From TrEMBL:
Gene responsible for this protein: proS
Protein name: Proline--tRNA ligase
Sequence similarity: Belongs to the class-II aminoacyl-tRNA synthetase family. ProS type 3 subfamily.
Annotated compartments: Cytoplasm
Gene Ontology MF terms in the entry: proline-tRNA ligase activity
EC numbers: 6.1.1.15
InterPro entries: aa-tRNA-synt_IIb, aa-tRNA-synth_II, aa-tRNA-synth_II/BPL/LPL, Anticodon-bd, Anticodon-bd_dom_sf, Pro-tRNA-ligase_IIa, Pro-tRNA-ligase_IIa_arc-type, Pro-tRNA_ligase_II_C
Length: 488
């Protein structure tokens, strides 16, 4: 027990300082490291494998819906950025520029891409000539740059990894269907694979993507009650098509502008997964995402270790051959130290085998999500493990959903009520969560909520729990029901 207590103290409790807990957790789990460049991090293997798992889940769905991966240049000419006025205005404060190369000033400075609509729009104008060339369904996995003033690993960094899809269509109807299809894919991946419940909805005009006609998002609640925008899908209309002259000859023998979409998700999903499921012991990873699903640890006296290993090694091979991602910890540290180590790293299931287990033809399985231990017969062990992993996956989603519901407030209808709610939460050192409120549609009311409470509109949910009748700010008739909350 002394070992366990000393180990846990290395991670700040969530209730004491959630941000500090987050940094302690990702550092102790060896997911990343800082670099000499401000706001940039190294993804260490344990962290990058989480991104690979997300890539696999998304790539599968992208390709099933006809999308293909490509890659476009990271450097974007300033003139391209200037072609879409709203786009450059939206990103200009965050843009890093290359102004010199080979010791000589460049004739035209180049932006490190914040997103790729402009360079891809230019290329599409070269590739699309006829309706026969449509639709174009392309995704790229890339890095992007947004020079953030305040950073947090995985959630907000100056350089981050993401995927960005860019499609071109003959009609608005097709493009809008694409926009909704990709938003649903994001929901499916985040809920089914990462076990994070989300709200799908439309962004308010002040929050939509620079240059878009409509922006849609999935929004997730972290354990401190703050929101993370976990994925966005944009209908761009023909705005970029007009800026970059992306035309096609239609069946009626007339030239028309294409309708385009873009959609993206990033490594902030890693940060979201950590913040939604982690606890004071560190990471807790959903089985479908965990680089290691089962950690096997031999226990018992060292003098009997050889006897244990005779059964341990074949069992390891059997589990690995089944497709379960399994590792064995054969280091010399005590079993208690190893238990704490792998709990902190978030491995969903721990398998313990000692001399008595070998004699009885059994093992002990310990769940990371509940701490429950069960004794399981070796006969049918793979099926038992697979069943438990699926139970853990579902339990983690339901636990996150219950937390979100408990911290979603539907009864607040005025600024006075919201201010009182925030004050009470701060006094009790509790999360203020999210508030479902009416909004009249006036940007000034939305801005006032943000200015006075630091709550921003998250999205206008497609299926809100209830519909609000009056605006939380001015009291006039509500045009929309909106989730408000503080965000990362």
């Amino acid at each position: 027990m002394k070992e366990e207590k000393a180990f846990v103290k290395e991670i700040t409790p969530q209730s004491e300082d959630f941000s500090r807990w987050y940094i302690d957790t990702i550092k102790k789990a060896d997911l990343m490291d800082y670099t000499p460049v401000r706001g940039c991090i190294v993804f260490k293997p344990e962290g990058f494998e989480l991104w690979e798992r997300i890539q696999e889940a998304m790539n599968k769905r992208f390709k099933e819906t006809g999308h293909r991966n490509a890659y476009f240049p990271m450097l974007i000419p300033e003139s391209f950025m200037q072609k879409e006025k709203d786009h450059i205005e939206g990103f200009n404060p965050e843009l890093p520029w290359v102004t010199e190369a080979g010791g000589e000033p460049l004739e035209e400075k180049l932006a490190l891409r914040p997103t790729s609509e402009t360079i891809i729009g230019h290329m599409y104008s070269q590739w699309i000539q006829s309706y026969r060339d449509l639709p174009v369904l392309i995704n790229q996995w890339a890095n992007v740059f947004r020079w953030e003033k305040r950073t947090m690993p995985f959630l907000r960094t100056s350089e981050f990894l993401w995927q960005e899809g860019h499609t071109a269509h003959a009609t608005e109807e097709e493009a809008r269907q694409e926009t909704m299809q990709m938003l649903e894919i994001y929901r499916e991946v985040v809920e089914q694979e990462l076990a994070i419940p989300v709200w799908k909805g439309q962004k308010t005009p002040s929050e939509r993507f620079a240059g878009a006609v409509d922006t849609y998002s999935i929004e997730a609640m972290m354990k401190d009650g703050k929101a993370v925008q976990a994925g966005t899908s944009h209908y761009l209309g023909d705005n970029f098509a007009r800026s970059f002259e992306i035309k096609f000859l239609d069946r009626d023998n007339t030239f028309k502008y294409v309708h385009t979409t873009s959609w993206g998700s990033s490594t902030r999903l890693i940060g979201s997964m950590i913040m939604v499921h982690g606890d004071d012991r560190g990471l807790s990873l959903p089985p479908r995402m965990a680089p290691t699903q089962v950690i096997m640890i031999p226990v018992g006296p060292m003098k009997l270790r050889e006897q244990v290993m005779e059964a341990f090694d074949p069992l390891f091979d059997t589990i690995k051959a089944s497709g379960v991602r399994v590792r064995a910890d054969l280091r010399e540290e005590t079993p208690g130290w190893k238990f704490n180590e792998w709990e902190m790293r978030g491995v969903p299931l721990r398998l313990e085998m000692g001399p008595r287990d070998v004699e009885n033809g059994q093992v002990i399985l310990a769940r990371r999500d509940t701490g429950e231990k069960v004794t399981v017969a070796l006969d049918g062990i793979v099926e038992s493990i697979q069943k438990l992993l699926e139970e853990i996956q579902q339990n983690m989603f339901q636990k996150a959903l219950a937390f979100r519901e408990a911290n979603s407030h539907l009864e607040i209808d005025s600024m006075e009520q919201l201010a009182a709610h925030i004050a009470k939460s701060e006094q009790e050192n509790a999360t203020s969560g999210w508030v479902l409120a009416g909004w009249c549609g006036d940007d000034a009311c939305e801005a006032k909520v943000k200015e006075e409470t630091k709550f921003t509109s998250r999205n206008i949910p497609f299926e809100p729990p209830v519909f609000k009748e009056t605006c939380i700010c001015c009291g006039e008739k509500a045009q929309h029901t909106v989730w408000f909350g503080r965000a990362y």
